[in-house]
Amino acid sequence: MVSLFDLSFYMETNKNNLIHLSIITVVYNDAHGLEKTIQSVLSQRFRNYEFLVFDGGSTDATIEIINKFSSQITYWTSEPDSGPYDAMNKGIEKSTGDWIIFMNSGDTFIDDHLLSRIFSLPGLNKTDVIFGDSIIDYKAFKIYKKAASLENIWKGMICSHQAMLFRAFLLKADGFNNTFRIGADYDRVCRLYKAGHLFQYFPEPMVNYAAFGISHREMFKSAREHFIIIKNIENLSFSQHLFHRCNLVYFFFLDMIYKVIPFKILCPFIRLIHLKKPV
User: Taking the model in full, what pTM does it have?
Assistant: First the structure.
């Protein structure tokens, strides 16, 4: 006898059976974070996906975690790479799905039904990129980060790349530019938008990700790369140039503050800045 739970699970996991998703995770020496991400992926009620894991030659227990779940991972490899975007490009090349999402080690989907809701969006057949909101985890507290308007893409990345799904053929045609160590995702997103590809906003948080990733630890370098990228793509006005130059000054001093003042002291100020967006 089929229970109502089994029936609802069957309906949810098969109503989008024409959509095939590639979930790509890159990892390096982060066994604990990787296990969290794997468990989040495996808990998704949407089941028509392949799961690819690219390890950069970890020396901790990462490989043990991969082996623990190897029967549920479509493909994995462990070899040195030149950084996360190199590994992500390897994932693009190996993927076979219609859509691609990148879930970094430690990232988790917001809930078990997230992918099912995304692939139920109206007009999806005309969409090239889906983007949404995120939850940033500072350990002591969490912040809701709403995606920026596409009109403001000249200011910087509209959302975290974990909260974006891309048509696979767009990334296979041209992956991430490895000359940008921090902002290659911004470069790719800007070029897709500039080329006229259709972006669709998903008005919910899509992922949880930890604060103090590389773009957070090196905010000045990130801002500088973003400025270089957008200058190469757009003919910026004087006021837009001024915005980016002020950003560089701001993040230069913010970087110095983060390096000399412990997070425990900064924590109340960060919460105050984001007072209107707590979780």
Answer: 0.89
